[in-house]
Amino acid sequence: MPDPNGFLRYPRRLPERRPVPVRISDWREVYPPAGEGLVREQATRCMDCGVPFCHDGCPLGNRIPDWNDLVRTGDWAAAVGSLHATNNFPEFTGRLCPAPCEAACVLGIGDDPVTIKQVEVEIANAAFDQGLVVPAPVAPPTGRRVAVVGSGPAGLAAAQQLVRAGHAVTVYERDDAIGGLLRYGIPDFKLEKGHIDRRLVQLAAEGVEFRTGVNVGVDVTAEQLRAGYDAVLLACGALAGRDTPQTPGRGLRGVHQAMEHLVAANRAVAEAGDGPVGPTPIDAAGKHVVIIGGGDTAADCLGVAHRQGALGVHQLDLYPEPPHTRDTARDPWPTWPWLLRSYPAHEEGGQRVFAVAVQEFVDDGTGGVRAVRIAEVTVTKRDGQRIVTPVPGSERELPADLVLLAIGFEGTEEQPLLAQFGVTRNTRGAVDARPDWQTDADGVFVAGDMHRGASLIVWAIAEGRAAAAAIHAHLGGAGTLPAPVTASTRPLAAR
């Protein structure tokens, strides 16, 4: 039984972040491991309510009250088993997911929600520290072969589910290392890459084969995959960055897509190992940096800019500053609320500017950017279209030697494999799936951001697991695999 008074006895608490002057001098994770006492205290706040809406907030259907109570009582091994029953990679979600489960926590109606994400990551840490992450038993070989294109969380989750069901699985990755966006898109101060590497040891031991440096559609054709495999899963992500080609000066030197900056920084950190991190082709050192965008990617760029030694940083957001607490009329519990979300990078420096839009990237006279001209704006909607109106007389310039566009993604990239498989992108730049997760091409499945557009890591894992279940059924596998979502499932929303 849960402690019925736990939430009354303990306030919500998180472990202290590493001090700003210390952490911006390296690339290690911001949060140190939490002490067992703190984690068990916070898990005690879970009420194990009669209808746990955290289950619906999380597309994986994580058994959150179960493993909270197991942590409360100190049964870490059972907590590890309960967590892994629904989530292949809790060490990733516990670090990277924005935690829609916490927004749906029943305690959050009248109090601060349970620190679900923190408890989750500490269970994952304990799993590795105690040697509990071992190769799982694998079913007898089915003689069926599956190719997974893309090694992000969707592709890896599907691969693990399928190989455990007895199918032979090969994961193709065009980069030189496995992990997709986790590897070269997410900075180390949020996810040190050793967490990926040690999970890959488990997958390889279970039988997953990895082939890196292979660009499917170029190095290997769709026809070759069809000939060599009984099914193909496309999990290539949604990396086509949204751009502003209509803004004057967009072609100036020094204006880049955010992912160009992040990938270069991640590669530099990987190459440095334990040594000093060298400069990158798109480096913020000694520069005035302007980041356009208000989401996770923008915050990642902000943290990287601090560690590279930026002279100053402005982060621009098109929309007004969000409220600090949930607007129940706009976003009633248990839906995901529109709130001001401050990331650790924001306490490290920089200035956030809301309700502004760039009117021009200003030339320094040599073809490089020297400033951005911004204006305050109002944003309205008409017939489903966003209308951005500059406020007269509000224009001003901000110095800018480096501008990073972090304004979202337009779906999966246009690439040769799509035409070769006979698959097209929809109006959102994503690839549609039938109810059985197949694309328009029979035997070719899709999951993750490539299917739903840029989204959360929990949705990627959930879709990977669900697509694996559909592939298993398609191949005539015995029994069923867990499918936490359907191809048409959407997040909780107010009607």
Which features characterize this protein?
495 residues, alpha/beta, Fumarate Reductase Iron-sulfur Protein, Chain B, domain 2, FAD/NAD(P)-binding domain, 5-stranded parallel beta sheet, 15% strand
Walkthrough of the structure:
By secondary structure, the protein is of the alpha/beta class. The chain folds into 3 domains: 5-130, Fumarate Reductase Iron-sulfur Protein, Chain B, domain 2 (Orthogonal Bundle); 145-239 and 411-475, FAD/NAD(P)-binding domain (3-Layer(bba) Sandwich), CATH 3.50.50; 244-407, 3-Layer(bba) Sandwich (FAD/NAD(P)-binding domain), CATH 3.50.50. 32% of the residues lie in helices and 15% in strands. The chain has 18 helices and 14 strands. The strands form 3 sheets. The protein has a 5-stranded parallel beta sheet, with helices on both faces. The protein has a 5-stranded parallel beta sheet with strand order 5-13-6-7-8. The mean pLDDT is 96. Pfam families: Fer4_20 (PF14691), Pyr_redox_2 (PF07992). Residues 145-464 form the FAD/NAD(P)-binding domain.
Specify the CATH homologous superfamily of the largest domain: FAD/NAD(P)-binding domain
What would the average pLDDT be, to the nearest integer? 96
How would you characterize the largest beta sheet? 5 strands, parallel
Lateral arrangement of strands in the main beta sheet: 3-2-1-4-14
Tell me the name of the CATH class of the largest domain. Answer: Alpha Beta
Number of helices: 18
Low-confidence stretches: none
Count the domains. 3
Please compute the radius of gyration using only Cα atoms: 23 Å
Estimate the global geometry from the Cα principal axes.
globular
- Determine the CATH topology of the largest domain: FAD/NAD(P)-binding domain
Helicity, in percent? 25-40%
> Got a strand count?
14
Strand content: 15-25%
Q: What's the CATH architecture of the largest domain?
A: 3-Layer(bba) Sandwich
